């Protein structure tokens, strides 16, 4: 079943995920192009933004043009924009903006010396750079500049970590808030006053960000997670793990794309490959009977540029 039905839904956020090398970038790029063309056909003014936080991005290769850390117009697609987010750069900007506030919380809520607090703050919080990249997109969504956001995620391991980040970040904020509570309790005891500082405002903003990200990811009316896989044993196993995590965190996922399926040809090699793949295709259909399955044939040439993405899109949108 193709992705055509998604065109009729009021989606704002579509994520593509799966193991490395299954064609997530090609599928997400072709889908973004398909939505942009459909919007243009319907004379809708909604613009589409496709982006990635993958540390090894390849959107630029798919579209055959340079793409930066800010929305870039895709040549040949009127209302399609792309962005390769440098998550580490976003994190550095975050630390620059809020670093003093976090240090204040650590220094005032603990017995750490200034040097110790700074050393603790300099440690990497796993996945924080990725959630900051996602925060940048939620900030874009607040501006309502784009009508649809499509995410080409990093391979499965990174994606699973990204999906659990709201919970982990929430725990991190609770820890900082507990330090802040101790500080305020001490101030009330000795100064007999209550003061709201910039550090307190920072915690409130971060709490709002986590809530916003969690609500976005779990909103079945606005969000869809499309799993991309291939017809082989490892692909099936990773798809099981990914869908299990999506269900655990209540993230809507109703579509699976099986990519690189050998066409039905007369050669012995093609027949052998197709027969072997059909075993896993049937397994995927049986295991995930509640999902819509889209089968995509192996492409003869490398998928690069608007024309090849349009050709791929004909299999995704019928």
UniProtKB/TrEMBL annotation:
Residues 12-316 form the ArsA/GET3 Anion-transporting ATPase-like domain. SUPFAM superfamilies: P-loop containing nucleoside triphosphate hydrolases (SSF52540). InterPro entries: ArsA/GET3_ATPase-like (IPR025723), ATPase_ArsA/GET3 (IPR016300), P-loop_NTPase (IPR027417). It comes from the Bacteria. Pfam families: ArsA_ATPase (PF02374). GO terms for molecular function: ATP binding; ATP hydrolysis activity. Gene3D superfamilies: P-loop containing nucleotide triphosphate hydrolases. Belongs to the arsA ATPase family. PANTHER family: ARSENICAL PUMP-DRIVING ATPASE ARSENITE-TRANSLOCATING ATPASE, ATPASE GET3. This is ArsA/GET3 Anion-transporting ATPase-like domain-containing protein.
